[in-house]
Write a structure and sequence with these properties.
With 179 residues, the chain is α/β, with parallel strands linked by helices. Helices cover 33% and strands 16% of the residues. Helix 2 (51-54) links the parallel strand 2 (35-39) and strand 3.
């Protein structure tokens, strides 16, 4: 049985990075693995976070999931503020602790690359924790602008490239489809 945890990066300007990560989470949960999702930048509960109530650890046939928002919201239309950096550092400390502990078989760091891109966290610090995490922990990192160092360190990288998106026609996110 495989016990080594791998590092996945889902990046690019296309839709579906978080969706793919939650798909992997569902697969892990249904196989009995515990999953942690730390959502950087995001500050509200989207529909996918409702899965937390379904996989709460009360059914021994499934794993449990814990989802935490670690940011103050997205940066569309504004620059990050010192409070955003403070939230990112506090969130990263929590995630680093969980990565080292091995408490969760799968750790998803949603939109972590955005925090890196905006300089809220140091890529070098993140890579050091990833290299020194519990060896069985599978890690999935999502978000646009993945730095080259993270791509180089990853075992699996998917670049989701937008070819066409209805957002460009003015259709905003739809309940149950895009959020």
């Amino acid at each position: 049985m495989e016990t080594k945890g791998y590092l996945h990066v889902y990046t690019g300007n296309g839709k579906g990075k978080t969706t793919a990560a939650f798909g992997l989470a569902l697969r892990a949960l249904c196989s009995g693995k515990d999953v942690y999702v730390g959502q950087f930048v995001k500050s509200m509960k989207y529909n996918e976070t409702k899965v937390e109530g379904l996989f709460d650890g009360t059914n021994p046939a499934f794993g449990r999931i814990r989802i935490e928002q670690l940011g103050r919201g997205c940066f569309i239309g504004r620059d990050p503020e010192p409070a955003d950096a403070e939230a990112a550092h506090k969130g990263w400390s929590r995630c680093a602790e969980l990565l080292r502990s091995g408490e969760y078989a799968v750790v998803i760091l949603d939109e972590l690359t955005i925090a890196l891109h905006f300089g809220l966290l140091s890529t070098a610090v993140v890579l050091d924790v990833l290299r020194n995490r519990h060896p069985a922990v599978e890690v999935v990192i999502t978000g646009r602008y993945a730095p080259q160092g993270l791509i180089d360190a990853a075992d699996l990288v998917t670049d989701m490239c937008e070819v066409k998106h209805y957002y460009r026609l003015g259709l905003l996110s739809r309940d149950g489809i895009d959020r």
